[in-house]
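One such given next:

>
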Amino acid sequence: MGQYFGTDGIRGVANKEVTCEIAYKTGIALRGLLQGKAPRVLIACDTRVSGGMLLFSLAAGCSAAGIAVDVMGIAPTPAAAHLTVACGYDAGIVISASHNKMEYNGIKLFKADGQKLADAEEAFIEQVLASTVVSALVTGSKVGKITSRPDLLTVYCNALKARYPYSGKRHRILIDTANGAAYITAKYLFPKADFLFDKPDGCNINDGCGSTDMAALSNAVTSGHYALGIAFDGDADRCLMVDAKGRLISGDKIGGALAAYRKRQGKLNGNALVCTIVSGTGLLEFAKEQDIAVIKTAVGDKFVIEEMLRQNLSIGFENAGHIVLNEGVPIGDGQAAALYFLSILEEEKITAEQLTADIKEYPQVQRAILVSDEGRKCFLESPALFTLAAELEKRYNVRSILRLSGTEPVVRIVTEGAKETAAIAAADALEAAVKAACQSN
C-alpha cells in the first residue's frame, strides 16, 4: 500500500484524507496512463453526501487534462466496471468507500478491461498526487467534454438478467440495499422482492444496515416469514444473506455453494476456488469433500481476482461477501451473486438452507482496533504481537489472523476454533496486546 492507495483504491475521510484537490489531481494523473488522442472515461458514485463533490472534482480534473467524461451518477461499483468494458471506455472510476461509514469516501479506478490498476500504475498516480505542480492541462477544443449518462444503468441490469435468469416466482425475499447504490438497480433486477433500507439521504449509507450490520434484516426476515434475506453494501460489490430462520449465510457459504454447483454443471475451471486467509475451516472441509482445490490469497478482492485471472478460475470470494464470478468482467458483484444463488434455488427447487447445509462454520470472533498513523507503524514493527498470536493458537487450539486493514485505519483480529469460548479468549488477549503496543502513542 502507498500513501494514498490501499487494497481497494484511494480511501479515507472525505474532505480530510480524500479531498477535492486529490480527486482533481487524480483526474489529471489518469491522463498520463491513458493512450490515444481522445480518451474517454466513465464515472459513477454511491449515495454518500460527499459523492457529488468528489465526482465533479474528479470529472473536472479529467476534463482539464483532455479526457472526455461520461457521468453515470449513482451506480454500483460493478456496474461501472462492467460498462467500462461493454461500452469501450478507456477507464472507469467510482467515487465510493464501499462498506465504510458515510464520512469516508474513496476513488476506485478500473482499466479498459475492467480490472483495477496495477501497482506500478497506482505508484504513478501517487507521484502526481504528491507533487505540488499541476501540469498537463489543455486548452480550447482539447478540453474534455462532460456528459450525463444515467441511461447506462439499464445496459448493466439487462446484462445481469440475461446471464442469470431468475423469475422470482418461487421464493419470497427481502433485500437490504444499505441505503446505497443498489437502491436503484435492485428494484429492476429483483422486481418481486420487498425492500429494506432503500431510502438514501446521503448520510444513512451502511448505517445500521447492509452487509456490515445484518441484525435488522435478520429480524425482518423472521418476523415477516420470508424465505431469504439479501444484504448488499454501499456500492453493492458485496452480498451476504440470512436464511428463513434469520441465520447468517456468509460469503464462504455463498461462494462454496456456487462453486459446488458449477462443479456439478462441469463448469468449475481448474476444479478450484479462490478465497482469502480469513475464510473458515468449514469451507476447507467442504471443498475437500467435494474434491475442489482451494487457493488462498491475502485479504482483498483485488488479490482474489489476480489469482483467478492468473489461473483462469471460475469463482473466488471473501467471507465478508465479495463474490467474484469470472463471467464477463471478473469483479465482486453482490447483485450478480444474489441472482446466481437465487437461480440455483429456483432450478433445483430447494431452499437456501438446503443449498448451504453441508458447509459448516466454526465459531469465529472478529475485532477491529482503531489506530493512528503512528500506531500502524508500531504494529508493523512489533513482531512480538505475531509471536503472541502463534502462542495463543497453541494454547487455545484456535486459528488466528492479525493484520492491518487496507481500507480503514484499524488493526483487524480474527480468531476461529471449535469452541467459541476459546476463540473469544484468544481474541481478548490479542486485542489487549494490540492496544498496548499501538495505542499508547
Notes: The chain has three domains: 5-153, 164-358, 364-438. The mean pLDDT is 94. The radius of gyration is 22 Å. The domain at 5-153 is CATH 3.40.120.10 (Alpha-D-Glucose-1,6-Bisphosphate; Chain A, domain 3).
